[in-house]
Specification:
The complex is a heterodimer.
Chain A: E1 4-13, E2 16-26, E3 31-35, H1 42-49, E4 54-62, E5 65-66, E6 80-83, H2 95-102, H3 111-120, H4 137-149, E7 155-159, H5 167-182, E8 186-190, H6 194-199, E9 203-208, E10 211-217, H7 218-223, H8 225-231
Parallel strand pairs in A: 3-8, 3-9, 6-7, 7-8
Antiparallel strand pairs in A: 1-2, 1-4, 4-5, 9-10
Helix pairs in contact in A: 2-4
Chain B: H1 2-36, H2 43-63, H3 72-101, H4 106-128, E1 143-147, E2 154-158, H5 159-181, H6 183-193, H7 195-201, H8 205-230, H9 242-252, H10 257-275, H11 279-282, H12 307-319
Antiparallel strand pairs in B: 1-2
Classes of the chains: A alpha/beta, B mainly alpha.
Bound molecules: adenosine-5'-diphosphate and magnesium ion.
Chain lengths: 234, 330
């Protein structure tokens, strides 16, 4: 049985349907990458997985547990973390406090986890006591991902972690995502930079108009001329 | 010298006193706004209710023959704060939470809080009548006279005023430590920063909301209780408080607790300085002045004191629309 399984999911905002039967399965330890044109419903899919969208049909299970329509505040305790596309940090809290808040659902001592996160994102080390809102875009993304890592997630959902970053920061974030994945975290990532993202994907999902257009290994999708023509800009 | 002490009493100490009241009220208002995103119009009446709780508890103790070296109302202030905190959580549970849960827009909840304000004013009158009450029963209210460098006048502070000033500073330090050191306090700031992210991070919003009402309600009770000890307890205590407290909240930056404190003192001092009779300070040098010194030179007649917060509000909103501490835009 797969680690994550989304079966024929439909839903949207209020009466408006955005997702028209999405399927997605992923094994433990994999990186799943979701690509597709703007407005395809990629963010909506991640939000639907995290209980933030009105789901009208289908199901989501993680390691056998049905989490369809689980309220968003019940995910942290199940070690499932989500980094939204925007507004993903607490700007007037310090970097350190952002990480502490990430661990709010845990009651144990997680100072070792925090030090580990500073090791993954060394630029944050000197900025511990600075307000997160004052950091550069790339560093803010690191805070956002770091905050999510504080629960030592089984599953990490990342919505466009490289949006608006310069190419240098972009590769850095991709490197970090791989590093996090190597520690055993299953990752579902939505990306605009499809080529780079699919290159690190175990499985890639091309989403168009709220349903699956293509599903294959990252490598195969990159090699597929049809995908390249319609979705990867030639 | 005596004139200067008069100035210290009438302008500085009075400003400190009324500023403390405004700051204590504004902290609650700004926290509620930061966490729950609505202007709690009934906050002034929570102050009145808190003052009545203080009085009722003191009355009960007194009728039980309880004697204490300090006035009973000072003894009962702390339990009354706890009672008012619980009362505020109750108000939220009964009136505001159901609206929030059903997804009502903030303006609807503001309207509901106007309803709660009218209801509380009615309830207070039903149970306590419309009369004015002395919080001290027949107990003496201590007045401290502090000699000031051999001046013929003393600095004058009453017992509740002294308690108020000390309490306000202690409360501010405690609030600062709570917000910056404790897990729940940091969570409050996180919710105020980004409530949606706080929720998906797994922060217990329910605890944060409760903490907000506990702090807001407790401080409102302290402000209402100590103000009515200083003067008298009237059912319309909130009438002259609500507007300056809103002004203080907005001037300080909506949602900013430190802003609320700064705004409270700014409005308080502005009021006392505006109604201060500057003629008194000029009297010793009257013979040097090229004109006859009028008996009274005040910027604003005392009866029009309530206009002062509004003038400050307008000035701040024109030159710094988000308030001193960069709060949210309404
Ligand atoms: N909160 C919302 N309320 C209503 N419609 C929304 C909301 N968020 C997104 N949409 C709509 O849903 C569609 C899919 O958006 P989204 O999932 O953000 O696309 P993507 O992330 O693939 O670019 C778009 O048409 C968008 O306008
Ligand atoms: Mg998106």
């Amino acid at each position: 049985m797969s680690f994550l399984s989304i079966d024929n999911l439909t839903g949207g905002y209020g009466q408006m349907t955005i997702l028209n039967g999405v399927n997605l399965t992923l094994d433990k330890g994999e990186i799943g990458v979701i690509v597709g044109p703007n407005g395809a419903g990629k963010s909506t899919l991640l939000k639907a997985m995290f209980g933030l969208v009105n789901v009208t049909g289908g199901s989501i299970t993680i390691e056998g547990e049905d989490i369809t329509r689980l309220p968003p505040d019940k995910f942290a305790s199940r070690r499932i973390a989500f980094v939204p596309q925007e507004y993903n940090i607490f700007p007037t809290l310090t970097v350190n406090e952002n990480l502490e808040m990430g661990a709010y659902s845990r009651r144990d001592d997680c100072s070792a986890v925090m030090e580990h996160i500073y090791d993954i994102f060394p630029p944050l080390k000197d900025k511990r006591h600075q307000n997160a809102g004052e950091l550069s875009g790339g560093q803010r993304q690191m805070v956002a991902v770091g905050r999510a890592l504080m629960i030592e997630p089984r599953l990490l959902l990342l919505d466009e972690p490289t949006a608006g970053l310069s190419p240098m920061f972009m590769s850095e974030i991709f490197d970090r995502v791989i590093a996090v994945n190597r520690t055993g975290v299953t990752i579902v990532m939505v990306e605009q930079n499809a080529k780079q993202a699919l290159a690190i994907a175990s499985t890639g999902f091309v989403l168009a108009s709220g349903s699956n257009a293509f599903t294959d290994t990252g490598k195969n999708l990159l090699a597929n001329p049809e995908v390249a023509k319609s979705f990867l800009g030639g | 010298m005596a004139e200067f002490v008069f100035f210290l009493n009438k302008a500085v100490l009075s400003g400190l006193i009324i500023g403390s009241i405004y700051a204590l009220g504004a902290i609650g208002l700004t926290l509620v706004f930061g966490i729950l995103r609505f202007a709690h119009i009934a906050h002034g009446d929570v102050m009145t209710v808190g003052a009545f709780f203080t009085l009722i508890l003191a009355g009960i103790l007194s009728s039980m023959g309880f004697v204490s070296p300090v006035p009973l109302v000072l003894v009962t202030l702390i339990p009354a704060m706890a009672l008012t905190a619980a009362f505020s959580i109750g108000l939220d549970r009964i009136f505001y939470k159901p609206l929030r849960d059903s997804g009502a827009k903030p303006i609807i909840i503001v309207m509901a809080s106007i309803g709660v304000m009218l209801m509380l004013q009615g309830l207070v009158r039903i149970f306590a009548g419309t009369g004015t009450r002395n919080m001290f029963f027949d107990q003496p209210k201590d007045i401290y006279r502090i000699p000031f460098f051999g001046s013929s006048r003393d600095l004058v502070l009453t017992e509740p005023q002294t308690v108020l000033i000390v309490f306000t500073f202690a409360a501010m330090i405690a609030l600062h430590l709570f917000l910056t050191r404790s897990r729940l306090g940091k969570a409050m700031r996180a919710v105020s920063d980004n409530a949606d992210l706080a929720r998906i991070t797994g922060i217990n919003i329910d605890h944060v909301v409760k903490a907000t009402w506990i702090i807001g309600g407790g401080l409102a009770c302290a402000a209402g209780g100590l103000l009515s000890m200083d003067v008298f307890l009237k059912p319309d205590l909130s009438f002259n408080l609500l507007l300056p407290i809103f002004a203080a909240t907005i001037v300080g930056g909506i949602g900013q607790p430190y802003g609320a404190i700064a705004g409270g003192f700014l409005v308080g001092f502005s009021e006392t300085l505006a109604i201060f009779n500057w003629s008194v300070l000029l009297r010793p040098v009257a013979h040097l002045l090229p004109f006859d010194l009028p008996a009274s030179i005040a910027l604003v007649p005392t009866e029009y004191k309530l206009t002062v917060p509004f003038v400050i509000l307008i000035i701040v909103l024109v030159y710094r629309p988000t308030g001193i501490f960069k709060g949210r835009v309404l």
